[in-house]
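re the bet — no i am not wrong, look at it urself. input seq straight from the record:
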Amino acid sequence: MRSANNPEARHGSAGTRPSIGGLGAISGPPARQTKQAWLAILAAVLLLPVFVRYAVATEIWIFAIFGLGLNLLMGYTGLLSFGQATFFGSAAYVAGYLLKYANVGVLVALVVGIAVGAASAAVVGYLCVQRSGLYFIMLTFALNQMFYFTAYQWTTVTGGEDGMPGVPRPAVLGFDVHGPLPYYVAVAVLFLASMAVMKRLVESPLGKILQAIRDNEARAEALGYDVRRMKLLAFVVAGAFSGLAGVLYAMLFGIVPLEAIGFVFSGNVVFATLIGGSGSLYGPVIGSFVFIWLSESVSTIWQRWPLLLGVAFVIVVLFFRGGVVEAWARVWAWRAAQRAPTATVRHDAAP
């Protein structure tokens, strides 16, 4: 039976924190692990367009930015939110409208999108952090539905179920990003910047406080931390990341679909983060690759591709609560354990 102090029981946490904070496949001291992890990410950024279409590769990194925001809530703070599409879609609609009708630049659209994502998250978060557990989860879901039906009914602005087409992709500081490759490069740079910001954040004192709240909220409150304020701050930061992803998504396809603000889209990023590894900085990146690759590539050759996603999710829940990150770590730990006896025998046999 779960204890009352268990964050999984009290805050609606997904309960998928892995025992590691990195990729798990990298050995050596922490500094070396971090360096090798970043080299792996840079290699993925460079090589991904070789194996998949530019649009798919770009969507993977956009979805990874989206997942980074959710992971701050779910993996580092212990708050399971089914309403992240609220901030993603709101930012996409506002920035898309400005790009289409006000002819603003890309940088202005990005700043506005981040601000809209953070502001909407502040409003939603203020209401949601008043409750915990199942009530918290249902509040995020219900408010997401309110935003969804507002967008559905406000057809003069959002286009309703037809979405908002015709979102342009202006030049950035004189550089044309209209082509698939230049836009991929721009998104990849923003993804790397987002990763760097998130890494600094989770390793900062604020990040440690959020993890303390995740592990034991009552103890964190007893130490003098304003738990609700910290949760709200995590909500706002996560909303800012979601807003950035929403603007990039709108410019990628030239349209803001109604589904971008729906609860199904919120569920997609939750599943992707869980499969990759909630509570690991690199989990959302891995999960985004798996989810987008399945939905965009495998779906063209097998219509029942969601079965693979369902099987992967069941395996994660039953055996690898840390997702792919934990599974990878276990494999490398097993290999290290197999090599250790051999090394010991060789050392003992030496003269």
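see?? Residues 1-28 have pLDDT under 50 and may be disordered. told u. also The longest strand covers residues 164-165. so pay up
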